[in-house]
Specification:
By secondary structure, the protein is mainly α. It has 8 helices and no strands. The longest helix is centred in the middle third of the chain and has 36 residues, at 56-91.
């Protein structure tokens, strides 16, 4: 594989910045990347800020807003799934889903108990961890499934996402010039 040159990296970052659409691109990519779709918004934010460094705080706020709303969509998906399951249980009262059923063995288990107890104990504050890769987006859906309070979840999710964008973007923007990529 060909080595990544400075020019290649800068071209990719400029392309991801989408200077023609700028902040709206940051919002859309941040929103979509916070759902269960595998996507990252950081390259778009970083690329935009390399083109428009004076827009740091507005870009961070737009990315946070999009990512927080996207997490709210995942929360709503989890809540919808919980309601659909409750309706199914109501319509199928004789279906075997007790502790000895095949379904319970597949869906439950040790990790299910640990995560459920952890989320019940932390409540909406667990949404501070939605910035984590791999587990963050599903955590929003699980909060909906467990019917944690929506608005406190949105608040803590926004705080976590904001801190992630500020810390990661600042660190990268500070490190790139140090490496000679400015």
């Amino acid at each position: 594989m060909e080595a990544w040159t400075h020019e290649t990296v800068m071209w990719l970052l400029n392309m991801w910045a989408l200077p023609e659409v700028g902040l709206s691109a940051i919002f859309i990519v941040s929103l979509v990347s916070a759902t269960l779709l595998p996507m990252g918004s950081e390259p778009v934010v970083l690329g935009y800020l390399l083109v428009e460094p004076s827009q740091f705080w507005i870009a961070i706020l737009i990315a946070t807003l999009g990512n927080t709303i996207g997490g709210g969509i995942s929360y709503s998906m989890g809540l919808g799934a919980a309601k659909a399951y409750a309706q199914w249980r109501k319509e199928n009262p004789n279906a075997q889903t007790g502790p000895d059923s095949d379904y319970s063995q597949k869906a439950g288990g040790r990790w299910h108990k640990i995560i459920s107890s952890w989320l019940q104990r932390l409540g909406p504050k667990a949404m501070l961890f939605t910035w984590l890769p791999i587990v963050g987006d599903p955590l929003c859906a699980i909060a909906g499934w467990m019917r944690l309070a929506f608005w406190p979840c949105m608040f803590y999710r926004a705080v976590g996402k904001f801190l992630r964008y500020v810390i990661m973007t600042s660190a990268i923007l500070w490190i790139l010039p140090y490496l000679g990529w400015s």
